[in-house]
Amino acid sequence: MLRRLKLKRFIIVEGDSLNVISWLKGGVPPPLRFDAMFDEIDDLIAGSFIDINHLQRSANGEADSLARGGLFFSYFKELVGKEVTVELKNDLAIRGILHSVDQYLNIKLENTRVVDQDKYPHMMSVRNCFIRGSVVRYVQLPPDGVDTDILHDATRREARGG
Fold first, then answer.
1. How far is CA 61 from the centre of its chain?
2. For the range 16-21, what are the long-range contacts, defined as Cβ-Cβ under 8 Å and sequence gap of 24 or more?
3. Which domain holds residue 156?
4. Number of domains in the chain
5. Quick one: CA dihedral 48, 46, 20, 76, positive or negative?
6. What is the pTM for the complete model shown?
7. Residues 125 and 155 both lie in one domain
């Protein structure tokens, strides 16, 4: 007899540290100094579907180069509090209020909803999410959030090398 699996949330974890990925998957126990932290993680994710993946460090190349340039980081900070749509490299598009962004263009969204709910029904219960910068394909900005003068100035500075 099949029972419907009731999950609290769907969580995707990606990292470039093989050790941490192994600890999270449970294949290798974490060092004792991290035991309490991993016990807390286990409690937080209980009842969730978790997809844990290892990424090669080279997969972070684009995000790292953008972060070093800082071109987009300062621009995205101006969009905090506005609605954006983030399209991921796996074709999932999530719309929400930009809560925060860091120098690696990792994005935290609140009040999220999936753009294509028929294709991703398991994501309908997700209301807040953290998106790693290296998995972002596009960020669609609100029309009133585009200040072309700032973008032109930043692009000119970047072209001059600083």
1. 16
2. 16/54, 16/55, 16/56, 16/57, 16/59, 16/60, 18/54, 21/52, 21/53, 21/54
3. 68-162
4. 2
5. positive
6. 0.52
7. yes
Task: State whether 50 and 90 are in the same domain.
Answer: no
pLDDT tens by residue, 44-63: 777 777 778 887 766 656 55
Residue where one domain finishes, among candidates 25, 55, 85: 55
Pair 140, 85: CB distance under 8 Å:
yes
Rounded to whole angstroms, what are the CA distances from 144 to 42, 70, 79, 136?
A: 42, 22, 10, 22
On whether both 38 and 111 belong to a single domain, the answer is no
What DSSP string runs through 60-111? GHHHHHHHHH-HHHHHHHTTTTSEEEEEETTS-EEEEEEEEE-TT--EEEEE
What is the Cα 156 distance to its own chain's centre? 29
Do 86 and 143 fall into the same domain? yes
